[in-house]
Amino acid sequence: MHDSTPDSTTGPGAQDASLLKVLGNWDALALGFGAMIGFGWVVLTGGWIASAGTGGAVLAMVTGGVIMGVVGLTYAELTAAMPKAGGEHNFLLRGMGPRWSLVGSWAITGGYVTIVAFEAVALPRTAEYIFPGLSRIPLWTVAGDEVHLTWALVGAIAAVVVTVINIRGVKIAGAAQTFVVLFLLIIGLILVFGSVTGGSAANMEPFFTGGSAGFFAVLVVVPFLFVGFDVIPQSAEEVNIPARQIGRLVVVAVVLATIWYVMTILTTSSAMPADELATADIATADAMGAMFGSDLMANVLIAGGIAGILTSWNSLLLGASRLMYSMSRSGMLPRWFGVLHPRYRTPVNALIFIGALSFAAPFFGTQMLGWLVDSGAPSIVLAYILVSLVFVILRRREPGMERPLRIGGAGNGGTVIGWVAVVLCVALLSLYLPGMPAALTPPPWILFGLWWVLGLVFLLRIPRGIAPGHDAEERLLETLADRRGGAR
After folding, report:
1. What is the dihedral of CA 414, 415, 417, 420, to 10 degrees?
2. Which of 92, 156, 304, 356 has the most CB within a 10 Å radius?
3. DSSP class per residue in 303-355
């Protein structure tokens, strides 16, 4: 299904209706759920259990799911009210104005980009479990880790393939996503079956360990694990379902992801004692092999991990490109990012930009995995704080705004939910600061800083004095056009 209408690349404001509405219910849900289920459940589960115990890890994950669920409720209402590509970008533009819109949009885009790059590094890391001789032709050493050409090329070539799939159209990307998510769910069912038949409750002990430090060690990875439900708002202009239903899918995706992570913890911990899991190469894969007494089944789980990499990669590349497209359409980013492919109607330049970053990431080695996780998480939480805050602002400033899905009923329940989301996210953000349980090391802060230095350049280009409102984008574009006219 292609639209042959000529593509205008003369300005960001000329393409308002050019994205194709081709995604259905299952496509949208697969994008949101698949974005959250990346690679972390394969490699991080053993560490969660070692840090907090089976019960502690489950408790931290459920707590994180509740936090993300509360934030998801604010997204649900706002997405249903403003079903336009870009999600956060539109919410903040209407409620807080262009500059705050750029801050929130740049924050979530940074989170997306770090995870897209993470998946490009995770893929060869996973492939090496199946093909131990993958690392050949040494290139250089990064933070004590030797990078090999053959290893890096696995991630780099995959980056090209995933980017090309997204350029060729959201329908193709959505269909691929649905297929891979179904495969991922089959792997989950096999895990549950293996736990019931080959696992042991005795292996789950101790249920709690590490105290509050162990609990927070698991909780701090929640933003990284759950980012992706907000991909559904990014693709809202390409979803051919009622606005109210788009909002509901956001919450459903968060609930499903929480169930998935809890299932992973319980099945993995039942397979092997905690001390063995802590020393496993890839804990969940080793657990699968132990439950079935078969190395083949460990490799089947790795195939599930690769499926998770691809679903997360595909979804977040789609989400990040739509955000950059929306920011360009509003004049916040250069017009180049707003160019659509003349045949496939996808934001081709934004996709190429993000694809190039993910192509380069594997050449920095496996140390980049941890750095990317840590550098993206604070930006993600910052975006969630701003969305929760603008939810409250719009409830008070525009009580009569059409809300196809109203959270918390007709009274003040929704406002309470919004403030709870703000407080929970501020508390989560504080965990990354110096002296706190998840204080970042210098390399992640450097990556974080580089992203925000670039963001500051774009922020300073936005004129002051443009008030928020439903027509803020139009007023911003007019001001920018006047400024260009005056410059001539």
Report:
1. 180
2. 92
3. HHHHHHHHHHHHHHHHHHHHHHHHHHHTTSS-GGGGPPPTTT-S-HHHHHHHH
Residue 471 burial (CB count, 10 A): 12
User: Are 339 and 352 in contact, with CB atoms under 8 Å apart?
Assistant: no
Token pair 């899905």: residue: 405
Q: What pLDDT is recorded for position 157?
A: 94
Look up residue 342 and give its amino acid: P
Integer Cα distance of 294 and 291 in angstroms? 8
Q: Find all residues with CB under 8 Å of 284, minimum gap 6, and list them.
A: 41, 42, 43, 45, 46, 191, 264, 268, 301, 305
C-alpha to C-alpha distance for 319 and 87, rounded to whole angstroms: 9
Residue 346 φ/ψ, nearest 5 degrees: -115, 150
Task: Report the SS3 class of residue 279.
Answer: helix
Token pair 């390399």 in the structure block, residue? 443
Q: What is the Cα–Cα distance from 65 to 63, expressed in whole angstroms?
A: 5
**Alpha carbons 46 and 146: distance in angstroms, whole number:** 25
Strand partners, 422: none
Number of DSSP helices (H) and strands (E) in the chain, helices first: 19, 2
In tens, the pLDDT along 263-276 reads: 989 998 888 887 77
Q: Evaluate whether 313 touches 162 at the Cβ level (below 8 Å).
A: yes
Q: What is the CA radius of gyration of the chain?
A: 22
Residue type, 64: G
Using CA atoms, how far residue 483 sits from 10, 103, 475, in Å, is: 17, 22, 12
Integer Cα distance of 77 and 246 in angstroms: 9
C-beta of residue 47 within 8 angstroms of C-beta of residue 204:
no
Environment class of 412 (CB within 10 Å of its CB; exposed 0-12, middle 13-18, buried 19+): exposed
109, 320 Cβ separation under 8 angstroms: yes
Residue 150, CB-side half-sphere exposure with 13 Å CA sphere: 10
Tokens representing 476 are 């911003």
Backbone conformation region of residue 469, classed left if phi is above 0, alpha if psi is from -120 to 50, else beta: left
pLDDT tens for each residue of 175-208:
767 777 888 888 889 889 988 888 788 888 888 8
Report the chain's mean pLDDT, rounded to a whole number. 81
- Interatomic CA distance for residues 82 and 394, integer angstroms: 12
How far apart (Å, rounded) are the C-alpha atoms in residues 352 and 97?
Answer: 29
Q: Which among 420, 411, 412 is positioned nearest to 389, based on CA atoms?
A: 420
Coil vs helix vs strand at 256: helix
Tell me phi and psi for residue 460, to 5 degrees. -70, -15
- Look up the pTM and report it: 0.81
Q: What are phi and psi of 138, to 5 degrees?
A: -60, 140
